[in-house]
Amino acid sequence: RARMAPTRLALFCVLLLASSRADDAPLGPVVGVDLGTTYSCVAIWTDGKVEILANDQGNRVTPSYVAFTESERLIGDAAKTQAALNPANTIYDAKRLIGRKFSDEHVKKDMKMWPFKIIEEAGGKPAFQVSTQDGTKTLTPQEVSAMILGKMRDTAETALGKKVVNMVVTVPAYFNDAQRQATKDAGAIAGLNVIRILNEPTAAAIAFGLDRKASQAETVLVFDLGGGTFDVSLLSIDSGVFEVLATAGDTHLGGEDLDNRLIKHLVGLLKKKHPDKDPLKTPAALQKLRREAERAKRALSSSPEVRVEIESLLPGLDLSETVTRAKFEELCADLFRQTIVPVEKVLEDAGVEKSEVSEVVLVGGSTRIPKVRSILKKFFNGKQPNFSINPDEAVAYGAAVQAAVLSGERDKKVQDLLLLDVTPLTLGIETTGGVMASIIPRNTVVPTSKTKRYTTAEDNQVAVTNKVFEGERSLSKDNRLLGSFELSGFPPMPKGEAQIDVTFDLDANGILSVSAVETKSGSTARITIANSDRLSGEEVERMVKEAESYKAQDGRSLERVAARAQLEAYMYACRKLLREKELRGRMIEDDLDTVQGALDNADAWIDSDIGGDAPDASASDFEMKLASLKDETVGPVLERYDASPEGYGTTEGGSMDEEDYDAQAHDEL
C-alpha cells in the first residue's frame, strides 16, 4: 500500500494526546513493565536514560511464577526454584490463559503439559486451582498476573525508594481486546493504574531506534519470539516518529512450545525402554522434565549437543539421554518454519520488498536459537539479523520510554517521540444483502475515528439495527460479530432519504466505540464493544488466510447480492411508479393486473428458499428474473403508457468517503 508521511498537524495532535495526561496532574514515577509468559522485567526513565531495575535476587528479569506452600506465597525466583518439589501448587503461564475460554483448543493442549490443575469457572473461563495454607483456592489468570505485576511494583519501589502506582504494561501486538482488558484488570487487582497498554514489538522498536542516528527514514522489521507469544511488526522510524506499517503474529507460539517438543521426545525415548511408565501423568516428573528441557534448549544455542540427566524422574527410574542440536531442530522444524509466515504477511500488507528492510531486529529469548537466526538470514537473502539490543530487556526498555512520555518527561530525547500503532483487522458494519462494509481497514493507525454515511432500505423505516463486525471476508456472516445496537426514533421517510452517519472510534488501547446519528432528526445511539467478544490472534490469522483462499467464493457471493439488489431496485421503482394517480388513471385494469401480478410473483420467488437468503440462486438467476420483468411482462406494458421505471425512485446514498463507495445497494442498513 502507498505510505504517506504523517503531517505536522497530525503529529502535533497525537503528541498532545500522548502528553495530555501529564498536563492534567503529576503521575509520580511511571514504570514500564514487560509482563512476559515466562519472565517479566521492569524499567524506568531516569537521568536521561532507561534503567532496568534488578529484583531482590539481583536479577534483571523475574520468572513469571507464583507458588503456594504450607506457610507462604512465593513470587518470582523463589517460586521457580522450588517448582520441582511443589509442582501442583507452582503456577505459571498465566499469559497463555488470560482472556481465553476454557474450551479454547490451545488451553486444552497446554493443560496436558502443565503439572498444576486448571478448572472451568462461570462463563467458561479457565482458572488455576491450588492448595494453600487456607485450603483449596481458585485463582483467575488476572489474579496471577496481578501478583506478578505487584512483584514488579515492589522491585521498582525498592530501587526508587518511592511509591509506584502508574505503569505502562506491554502485551503482544496480536493480543485481542479481551486479553488487553484482562491485562488492565490485572493491574487494577494489584492496586495499580495501567495508563497505557503498549504492543511489545513497538516497545522493542523504541529500544532499538531511540538513540539511533540515521540520516534518513529506516524500515525496520521487529521479530519478537518470546516464551509464549510471537509478534512481527514492520515499522518506519524517522526522527523520533515510530510508525507501525503492519503487524502479524501468533499469540500461542514461543519457547515453551519448543520445550514441549523436547519433553515429548524425552518421554518417547523413556517409553521405548519402559512402556508402562508415563512421567507426563506425574506432576513432579513433568516439572523436572520442563526444567531440564528448558536448560537443554538454552545449552543447544551454544553447544552441538547436550546431556539430559534426571535422577529419580519416577520412583526407581533415572533418565539419561543425549540430545543434539540437529535433533532439536528436526523436532521443531515446523515451528521454526511457522515463524516466517507472519514475516511474509507484514511485508505483503505494507507493500514492502525484502530488500527495502533496513534492519531485522531480534527480540525475545527464543531469538538466541541459531536456527531462528539462520532461517531469517536465508529469508532476507543473506542479511544478518540485528541483535544489538538485549532480547530479554528491550520490551521493558521501550515501555519505560513510553512511560516517560506519558508522565510528561521534558527530556529532549523523549519529548519529541511519537508512536503510530495499528489495528490488526478490518472493522465494519453489515449492510443490505449481508455485505460487510469496511469502516476501519486493518493496519489503520490508531487512535482513529472514521465516519461513513448510510441510508434506509425500505419505505417508512423508523429504525435500523447496526451490526458491528471484525474480519476480512466480503460477507458479514463469514466475519466475527462484535456487537449490535438499534438506532430508532427518526420519522418515517421514503426509502433512501434518511441519512445515517455511522462513526467508529478506536482508542490507543484498542477499545472500539460505535455511534450512529440520523442527521435530519438528530436521533442517536452508540455502543462500546464488549471485549470478551473480540478475536484471538489465531482467529485473526485464520480469517486473513480464509479471506485470501475464499476470494473467488466471495466474488460470486457479492455478484449474487448485487444482482438481487438490482432486481429489487427495479421492482421498487415500478411499484412507486404505479402509485402515481395519473398513470393508474390511464392504465386499463388487465394491464395493471399483469404488472402487479408479475411483481408479486417476483417477490414470492425472492422470498422463497431458491431466491432468498439460501445460496441456491446464482447472480445469473437474478439477472434472468430481472430481464424477464423488463422484456416480457412489466417493461412492455409500461412502455405502452410511455412510463419507464429506469432511474425512477433511486437514491444517491453512498458513503462519505467516495473512494470506499462500491455499489448503491450496499449502502443501505
Number of strands: 28
CATH-scheme architecture of the largest domain: 2-Layer Sandwich
CATH superfamily membership of the largest domain = ATPase, nucleotide binding domain
Helix share, percent: 25-40%
Mean pLDDT: 86
What is the overall shape?
elongated
Structural class: alpha+beta
Name the CATH class of the largest domain: Alpha Beta
Low-confidence stretches: 1-25, 530-536, 649-666
Number of domains: 3
Cα radius of gyration in angstroms:
30 Å
Main beta sheet strand tally, sense and closure: 6 strands, mixed
How many helices in DSSP terms? Answer: 20
Family: Belongs to the heat shock protein 70 family.
Protein name: Heat shock protein 70
Organism: Haptolina brevifila
Keywords: ATP-binding, Endoplasmic reticulum, Nucleotide-binding, Signal
Architecture overview:
With 669 residues, the chain is an alpha+beta fold. The protein folds into three domains: 329 residues, ATPase, nucleotide binding domain (Nucleotidyltransferase, domain 5, 2-Layer Sandwich), CATH 3.30.420.40; 81 residues, Actin, Chain A, domain 4; 86 residues, Substrate Binding Domain Of Dnak, Chain:A, Domain 2 (Up-down Bundle), CATH 1.20.1270. The protein is built from 20 helices and 28 strands. Strands 1, 2, 3, 4, 11 and 12 form a six-stranded mixed beta sheet that branches. Strands 18-13-14-15-19-22 form a six-stranded mixed beta sheet. The N terminus is likely disordered.
